Amino acid sequence: MNQHIDHNDIALLRQAGMNEEDLGHSLSVAERALDIAGRTGADLDMNFIARGALFHDLGKVRTHGLEHGEVGAALGAELGLPEEILAIMKKHIRGGMTRAEALELGLPDIDYTLHRLEERIIIYADRLVDIIGDGVEPDPIKAEERFAEILTTIVRYGKNETTLNRYLRYHQEIQGLIAARS
Q: Above 90 in pLDDT, residue 64?
């Protein structure tokens, strides 16, 4: 397990009621995000990446619906988590929506856009872990290589044109950083 993943955070997720399947997903997202972040060579807050990835799906202890981001942020506030972690819980739905998109989906009228590279890496890792975990492309590096192809051909990963384009921008930005470092 990565040195940035705190066992106390894992215990807190279990204590909050997260089931082992969702916890496994969150751990995978944290590990994938930390791996990707390390390969970018960017000066990043690795502890934020680890914690944001671990807690992003906290709301799934109550619901697996679109509102799990808002629910998770409320639960996280009760647990005393920092605002930046609460923000990633809210904003990870659909990869960081605009206010208009949120209203269209019946979510609160707030800006869900991702402003930090760390946030975009977490969201990118979350989508990759879904692809890997579902067996679409089980090899992590090949999943990155095939990311655009998979999202454009399998609707459940790209969601809709707006969300798809957002994920593709994150992919291009992050892979560009990785390529520039090699």
A: yes
